[in-house]
Amino acid sequence: MHKENWLSLQARRPRLPHALLLIGQKGLGKYALAREFAASLLCENVAPDGHACGQCMACNWFAQGNHPDFRLLQPDALGEDVETEEGKKKPSQQITIDQIRNLDEFLGVGSHRGGLCIVLVNPAEAMNRNAANSILKILEEPPASILFLLVSSEPSRLLPTIRSRCQAAPISVPPTEVATRALVAAGISDAERWLALSGGSPRFAREMATSGQGAWLELLANRLAGGRGADPLGLAGELEKAVKDSKGRLQLKQVIEAVQKWLVDLTLVKNGLPTRYFLGQQPKITMLADMIPAVRLIHFYRTMNQRRQEAEQPLNARLFLEGVFLDYRALFSR
Ligand SMILES: [Zn+2]
């Protein structure tokens, strides 16, 4: 865990708001950090550096998942004992209004230990519309000594009214050397490349490196490097297959995010800066950037933000990807 982030959370202790929103890119360990922070707030014999003692009654309850003043809200799909047998209902990817309603009693009773009542929401963007509205009502008139810890990699997907009720706690990316060292120590080869592709998030980098993501990313980068010569329909077919074959481990939105990173790199080199994500392809990206008018890049960037939203529930994955790559090739048209 990156020490700066821990210290900045600890610094908030004397004047905690009713709701803290931990925001930062994927893979920084925000959830683990939020849990650690919750544990330290509930601990009844906290260490001088702010860490939970790990030994008191409160710490024991917390470790066993039954501290009476702590609730975790997350989609069923993230739960540990998810039923995956055939014929069972697919676990929800959303945080539902029922989960928020179940908080009523928790919030009504107040603290059992004379301290804070903490509700951890992970990830906050998983709240569906009804759930979000329901939690908003609570945030508008929060009971005393309640602390909501909301965790989000995509705060733009939260209701603005929720965001404005929370104090933002930005979680920063660790320094490259620190993250690279941690990855090498964990036995990840090619650590720098993965770290760059993940945008500097060590956890995300490790996940990518160890989950067989190399193949499709390599494929995507090679094809995009083809510029005008790229075969949009062929590429759409190949990636649709990769998504399908991954059985849920690779999602369409990850493909779009990778294209967005490629686009960021194009924009960076166009402005005379080095690539951030695709380190190995810098010479190629530089060549491509020269061929694209800046105004087209900006327009494509906007389109891709829109696509990123649509990627959650596309009507037809193949057509969707074809659209994306046709747009990409059009960047190079004369
Ligand atoms: Zn303790």
Describe this structure in words.
With about 325 residues, the chain is of the alpha/beta class. Helices cover about 50% and strands about 5% of the residues. It has helices spanning about 5-10, 30-40, 55-65, 95-100, 105-110, 130-140, 160-165, 175-185, 190-195, 200-210, 215-225, 230-245, 250-270, 280-290, 295-310, 315-330; strands at about 20-25, 70-75, 115-120, 145-150, 165-170. It has a 5-stranded parallel beta sheet with strand order 2-3-4-1-5, with helices on both faces. Helix 6 links the parallel strand 3 and strand 4 (about 145-150). The termini are far apart. The structure holds zinc ion (ZN). The site of zinc ion has 9 residues, from helix 3.
- The ordered H/E elements are HEHHEHHEHEHEHHHHHHHHH
* Rg from Cα: 22 Å
By secondary-structure content and strand pairing, the structural class works out as alpha/beta
* Euclidean distance between termini CA atoms: 49 Å
- Spatial order of the strands in the main sheet? 2-3-4-1-5
Point out poorly predicted stretches: none
* Oligomeric description of these chains: single chain
* Ligand list: zinc ion
Brief write-up:
This protein has 334 residues and is α/β, with parallel strands linked by helices. It has helices at 3-10, 30-42, 57-64, 97-101, 103-109, 129-140, 160-165, 176-185, 191-197, 202-210, 214-224, 232-245, 252-270, 282-291, 294-310, 317-330, and strands at 19-23, 70-73, 117-121, 146-152, 167-170.
